[in-house]
Design goal:
There is one protein chain. The chain is α+β, with helices and mostly antiparallel strands and 83 residues long. Helices cover 59% and strands 12% of the residues. It has three helices and two strands, in the order H-H-H-E-E. It has helices spanning 8-11, 15-31, 36-63, and strands spanning 65-69, 75-79. Strands 1-2 form a two-stranded antiparallel ribbon. Strand 1 and strand 2 (75-79) form a beta hairpin. Helix 2 (15-31) runs antiparallel to helix 3 (36-63).
Length: 83
């Protein structure tokens, strides 16, 4: 397993693919038509997908920069404060 105990197959997913799988799981669980064991496994996978998506979003947030003007008027970049 990868960091945060995220399974390797999930850790390889893009944000978009992981989110799509998470949405599918949520729909299936909301329908409530599956067996209990399958629902528990789906919930566990959904929890890992959620962690993975949150990690991907945090990585993206850290890469976002904003343009600022220095004391001499020259433009520069610094990390954006998005919190």
């Amino acid at each position: 397993m990868a960091k945060n105990n995220i399974p390797a197959d999930i850790a390889k997913l893009s944000f978009e693919d992981a989110l799509e799988q998470l949405e599918d799981i949520v729909r299936e669980l909301e329908e409530g038509s599956g067996e209990l064991d399958a629902s528990i496994k789906a919930y566990e996978r959904g929890a890992h997908l959620k962690l993975h998506c949150e990690g991907k979003l945090k990585e993206a947030q850290q890469r976002v920069e904003k343009v600022v003007l220095g004391a001499n008027g020259a433009p520069g970049l610094e990390p954006a404060d998005l919190d």
